[in-house]
Design brief:
The complex is a heterodimer of chains A (about 300) and B (about 250). With about 300 residues, chain A is α/β, with parallel strands linked by helices. Chain A has one domain: Glutaconate Coenzyme A-transferase (3-Layer(aba) Sandwich). Helix content of chain A is about 35%, strand content about 20%. In chain A, strands 1, 2, 3, 4, 8, 9, 10, 11 and 12 form a nine-stranded mixed sheet that branches. Chain A has a three-stranded antiparallel sheet with strand order 5-7-6. In chain A, helix 3 packs across helix 4 and helix 5 crosses helix 7. The longest helix of chain A has 13 residues. By secondary structure, chain B is of the alpha/beta class. Chain B has a single domain, classed as Glutaconate Coenzyme A-transferase (3-Layer(aba) Sandwich). Chain B has a ten-stranded mixed sheet with strand order 4-3-2-1-5-10-12-13-14-15, with helices on both faces. A three-stranded mixed sheet of chain B has the order 7-6-11, with no helix packed on it. A two-stranded antiparallel ribbon of chain B has the order 8-9. In chain B, strand 13 and strand 14 form a beta hairpin. Classes of the chains: A alpha/beta (about 300), B alpha/beta (about 250). Chains A and B meet through strand 3, helix 4, helix 5, helix 6 and helix 7 of A and helix 4, strand 9, helix 5 and helix 6 of B.
């Protein structure tokens, strides 16, 4: 399925979307761009740290709610669109549901495994408990000590980037995964952006490397470099200059609009985006080969 | 014997000295990861570095890192896994120390990385917490690194993103926080430590070339000094050699 088709089929205005659950690597930026191209509105964007993905969607007017621990530009610092929305209501106001990384992790964990909430000690004493009133302070019935309850978070759709998948969505991921597994399982629908599509035997040869099995996946899209400008282990290096360029170009709303036209709206799809990057993208392709040792699954 | 060093290099060495051998440390990017590298090469060869994206490392990464998720930080790691597994070490009481920075810190070591001004109508919306509140809440001790300016070291932060000693005294304990709280603030002018039962941060040492008056003038509360206020020890040759070995391009030298 094309990414455009996956987005038009599975994402409606007003959806709660988790995108960027792996923190700074494997960010599904190609999906960010497609949400902007298709003009989705009133989205609630959920992620622990989404780098500039959420900032782009805010600037493009797609977002009314942000749920997460950090929104900005990991290379540049502040996210200009996030600031404009929070400080001046531009392009329109957003509601911010603050979490820390561990508490949003526990919210996904509860959502994934059917727990109403998870009691934690972290976040006690933090004003995040005042800004996010869904987190409740109570007394541990066993010890009488203070405890914070993090309610389950169940997104409508999760986008994730994987190094390789088969056509059924059985996916191999390696490297650090942040909250990818919990966030995806918590979501009602999963859309996989596979950097490479492989034969089912390749995935089946190493089931321990499967983070998300195909039976939970709603759409599989072959999107090489769908993570750009974020890195993907063994596939793509981080395009640090791209993050700095974005930071510089988006200081004012007109600048963001120009950037967004050039890099998103005026491009038909991710193939056009890759073609526009051209040699710059090729320079980021990881050509080295440092394989892990094979694991033996023999039965006799 | 004195050696040429920049202010940032002095801060890195001061931060490295906060890491004891064998400790598990939440390492941030840039200055703290460099400090971790220095500690590993000098007095703490068995320290373990933790990164909340889901990475644990022994040896620091070889090569420039823009983020903790970059390839060099994952190649040869002790463990690449998920956030819950790594931050679960914190929650399980298995992390000795963490490094964090912020936009503002107050006299009780509370840190703000969320909102300047009113929550509902902020003057500045900062990027937010990341994992800092979890590190501040649950690590045995916290090392805060911040530039020493009056608008950064404030009487009371507008928003407590990452809790220090809250309102001082036993407020932190009463709130139910498991970790020990901030142990030190390292700035570009001085080192501050919590003092007495109130846990108010006091001036503990001044970096060479700075004065008490200057430090006080750049602090947003009525800064008191500990009784045996001294000068921050200069980096040793061994420490500087380790730093130069890591910082081959001289990023921290100016």
């Amino acid at each position: 399925m094309s990414l455009a088709e996956a987005v038009s089929t599975h994402v409606q205005d007003g959806c709660k979307i988790v995108l960027g659950a792996a923190l700074e690597n494997a960010v599904p930026f190609a999906a960010t761009h497609e949400l902007i191209r298709q003009g989705r509105r009133e989205l609630n964007m959920i992620a622990p740290i989404s780098d500039i993905s959420t900032d782009m969607l805010i600037g493009a007017g797609c977002v009314t709610e942000v749920t997460g621990a950090w929104v900005g530009n990991v290379s540049g610092g502040m996210g200009h669109n996030f600031r404009r929305a929070a400080e001046k209501g531009l392009p329109h106001p957003i509601k911010i549901n603050d979490y820390s990384n561990f508490t949003i992790g526990m919210a996904f964990f509860a959502g994934a495994y059917g727990l109403p909430y998870v009691p934690v000690k972290t976040i006690l004493g933090s004003d995040i408990m005042k800004s996010n009133q869904s987190i409740k302070l109570t007394e541990d019935p066993y010890t009488g000590e203070p405890v914070a309850l993090i309610p389950a978070l169940k997104p409508d759709v999760a986008f994730l980037v994987v190094q390789r998948a088969d056509k059924a969505g059985n996916s191999h991921i390696w490297g650090s995964t942040g909250l990818t597994q919990e966030a995806s399982i918590a979501a009602n629908k999963i859309i996989v952006l596979a950097d490479e599509i492989v034969e089912p035997e390749v995935i089946a040869s190493d089931p321990s490397r499967v983070l998300i099995p195909g039976f939970g996946v709603d759409a599989v899209c072959h999107v090489p470099a769908g993570c750009h400008p974020a890195p993907l282990i063994g596939k793509w290096q981080r395009d640090n200059a791209f993050f700095h360029h974005y930071h510089k170009e988006t200081r004012v709303p007109d600048g963001f609009d120009r950037w967004c036209d050039e890099w998103v709206r005026d491009l038909a799809d991710h193939d056009a985006y890759r073609a526009k990057l051209g040699g710059e993208l090729e320079d980021l392709r990881i050509l080295g080969d440092v394989p892990s040792a094979p694991a033996n699954y023999a039965t006799e | 014997m004195t050696h040429d060093y920049s202010t940032q290099e002095l801060m890195i060495i001061a931060a490295a000295r906060q890491i004891a051998d064998g400790e598990r440390i939440f390492v941030g990017m840039r200055l703290p990861i460099t400090a971790y590298g220095v500690a590993r090469l000098t007095h703490a060869p068995n320290a373990v570095g933790l990164f909340e994206s889901g990475v644990a490392r022994y040896e620091p990464a070889d090569g420039m890192l823009y983020t903790m998720c970059d390839g060099p930080n994952q190649l040869g790691a002790a463990w690449t896994t998920g956030l819950i597994q790594i931050m679960g070490l914190l929650s399980g009481g298995r992390v000795h120390a963490g490094f964090i920075g912020g936009a503002e810190v107050d006299k009780f070591g509370n840190i703000n990385t969320s909102y300047i001004g009113d929550i509902d109508d902020p003057k500045v919306k900062l990027p937010g917490s990341g994992g800092a509140p979890d590190i501040a809440a649950m690590a045995e001790r916290l090392v805060i690194i911040i530039n020493h300016q009056k608008h950064r070291l404030v009487e009371k932060v507008d928003f407590v993103t990452s809790p220090g000693f809250l309102d001082g005294g036993d407020a932190r304990k009463k709130a139910g926080l498991p970790g020990g709280g901030p142990a030190v603030i390292i700035t570009d002018r001085a080192i501050l430590k919590p003092h007495g039962p109130e846990h108010e941060f006091h001036l503990a040492s001044i970096h060479p070339g700075h004065t008490v008056d200057e430090v006080m003038a750049n602090t947003g509360w009525d800064l008191k000094s500990i009784p045996d206020l001294g000068v921050t020890p200069e980096p040793t040759k061994v420490e500087m050699d380790a730093l130069h070995h890591i910082d081959k391009d001289g990023f921290w030298r100016s």
